[in-house]
Amino acid sequence: MSDTDLAAPCVILNEPQLAENIGAVGRVMANFGLSDLRLVRPRDGWPQERAWASASGADWTLNDAKVFERLEDAIADLRLVYATTARPRETQLPVLTPREAAAELNAASAAGWPTGLLFGGERAGLETHDIALCHGIVTIPIDPKFRSLNLAQAVAINAYEWRQTVLDRPREAFAANVAPPADQASMAGLHAHLETELEAAGFFHPPDKKPSMVKNLRVALNRARLTEQEVRTFRGVVTALSKGRGRVLANLAAQKAERGG
Amino acid sequence: MSDTDLAAPCVILNEPQLAENIGAVGRVMANFGLSDLRLVRPRDGWPQERAWASASGADWTLNDAKVFERLEDAIADLRLVYATTARPRETQLPVLTPREAAAELNAASAAGWPTGLLFGGERAGLETHDIALCHGIVTIPIDPKFRSLNLAQAVAINAYEWRQTVLDRPREAFAANVAPPADQASMAGLHAHLETELEAAGFFHPPDKKPSMVKNLRVALNRARLTEQEVRTFRGVVTALSKGRGRVLANLAAQKAERGG
User: Fold this and answer.
1) For residue B245, what is the nearest residue in chain A, using CA coordinates?
2) What mean pLDDT comes out for the span A100-126?
3) How many helices (H) and strands (E) are present in chain B, helices listed first?
4) Chain B partners within 8 Å of A27 (Cβ)
5) How far apart, in whole angstroms, are the C-alpha atoms of residue A99 and residue A102?
6) How far apart are CA A224 and CA A183, in angstroms?
7) Among A90-104, A157-171, B72-86, which stretch is predicted with the lowest mean pLDDT?
8) Cβ partners under 8 Å of residue A223, min gap 6
């Protein structure tokens, strides 16, 4: 189901309560390319229509969800499982950030190991005996002043980190949409055009300040990293704003000629 | 409100639809130490009881939420604003991952600059003219197979990255020599001045192209991250280049009066 060519971790919800939250989990799994959802003793049974209503079309994660009576069975095939908790518990398991966990899960997936992320129910979270079935603890860096993190949000952050880790520099894909900056010859043309018109308009005074004024204008425009198209646009702007003055002079000359002639 | 000693970015929701989502945004802001929530034209008005019901006790973010009629006013005091979109748009603004954006926001906060993250409404997202008011685009690495990301999830991932970035590296001051960028109210003033003069100069033709021409000019100027001093300089540029036209009209009027009188 993923575009990443790597098996994504499954998501195990232990004793989830609200069908809406299960649906929201399915939705956000789909957002980040996860699809294997496992439910251990969902409070209101399964399936629940309200789950599909809140999945916003990510039905496949819910359609394929598997239900288990025991957590041990839900994770039986996995070779790396992390328990997600709101605060680190007193266990001797390693405690990882979502990012560190994602790196480990990614490496395990690359090795062909089935992996999973375990989440507790909305109210109680995970018991220590549930956590003890896992290889480590993932703790999201919540502000201690307000720890009540929504279940689907906890899944979102871990799923996001997993996908971010897998994706190889997503930025490069976007870079293709972005036109390259103009070359410095085009920029020099824009600078010269602007400065000529400003000179004609009497902008540079006192004259001994001109060099620093010119430099400041160039720096600001260079910082914009204008594209070739944008350079043309700005040259059009300079022309449009300046043409009044040209017209003034032409008009004055014409009128003078008329009167004088 | 945060334990990080750094001012967190504000969250601006542009035309949010569902009060439940606004409440969920408030909740997840509190999870990650954000507290300044701004609403632009919430569809069902404000306040809405259902928002508080879905905030799970993070009431303070909602109690203090500010409502604006115009996006421009909601971001007027900010010096760095990123627009969050599900997919990179065809603008010439830089595209960042949530992590890259968090690093920039963090550095700006360390320098004392007010910052913000802008999110569009549930259905429509952000329009390009909204995005053109920002300094960059943040794109969450969604699986292209299922892009429908819940609004509160989008806020969650950016808020999480902001907090993770703050926790990861104790503040290194932004380059102390660098003057802060102008606030968005100053930029709006420059945009309006330039556009008024261009309109008077007949630059915007055909007229139906004006919105996209305006948007392109704003994007390029925003990208330059002008300082207040540079904004003043560019307003001087616009004035200097435009004054010929004023003089033309004044001269023509005077000459007409002379001749006619």
Assistant:
1) A244
2) 90
3) 10, 7
4) 146, 148, 150
5) 5
6) 13
7) A157-171
8) B223, B224, B225
pLDDT in tens, A128-151: 888 888 888 999 999 999 999 999
DSSP A39: E
How far are the Cα atoms of A25, A48, A54, A106, B213 from residue A18, in angstroms, in the given order?
Answer: 11, 9, 11, 30, 49
Among A99, A143, A223, which would you mutate to test the B interface (most chain B Cβ atoms within 10 Å of its Cβ)? A143
- Closest to B1 measured CA to CA, from B38, B40, B46, B31: B31
Dihedral sign from CA coordinates of B213, B214, B216, B220: positive
Q: Is the pLDDT assigned to residue A206 strictly greater than 80? A: yes
Nearest to B150 among A27, A97, A145 (CB): A27
CB contact under 8 A, B164 and A97: yes
The pLDDT of residue A175 is above 70: no
The pLDDT of residue B173: 46
Q: What is the CA radius of gyration of chain B?
A: 21
Mean pLDDT of B66-90: 89
- Our measurement of the distance from residue B123's CA atom to the centroid of its chain's CA atoms, rounded to an integer in Å, reads 19
Q: Are A119 and A13 in contact (CB under 8 A)?
A: yes
Return d(Cα B198, Cα A203) in angstroms, integer.
Answer: 19
Task: Please give the pLDDT value at position A100.
Answer: 93
Percent share of chain B, pLDDT over 70: 86
CB–CB contact B233 A216 (8 Å)? yes
Q: Do B245 and A244 touch (CB under 8 A)?
A: yes
Q: For A240, phi and psi rounded to 5 degrees?
A: -65, -45
* Phi, psi for B137 (deg, rounded to 5): -115, 135
In chain B, residues with a C-beta closer than 8 Å to the C-beta of A97 are: 164
A102 touches chain B (CB under 8 A): no
Is B233 close to A220, i.e. CB distance below 8 A? yes
Question: Where is B20: in which H helix or E strand?
Answer: helix B19-31
Spell out which residues of chain B touch residue A98, defining contact as CB-CB under 8 Å.
Answer: 160
Assign residue A183 a region (left: φ > 0; alpha: ψ between -120 and 50; beta: otherwise): beta
Is the pLDDT at B229 greater than 50? The verdict is yes
B72 and A CB contact within 8 Å: no
User: What residue in A sits closest to B156 (Cα-Cα)?
Assistant: A153
Q: Which residue has the higher pLDDT, B1 or A148?
A: A148
**How many Å apart are CA B104 and CA A101, to the nearest integer?**
24
Q: Does A174 touch chain B (CB under 8 A)?
A: yes
- Compute the distance between CA of residue B109 and CA of residue B85 in angstroms, rounded to an integer: 22
| Alpha-carbon torsion (A119, A120, A123, A129), positive or negative | negative
Q: Cα(A225)–Cα(A230) distance, rounded to whole angstroms?
A: 9
Inter-chain residue contact A252 with B251, CB threshold 8 Å: yes
Q: For the purposes of burial, counting CB atoms within 10 Å of the CB of A139, is it exposed (0-12), middle (13-18) or buried (19 or more)? A: middle
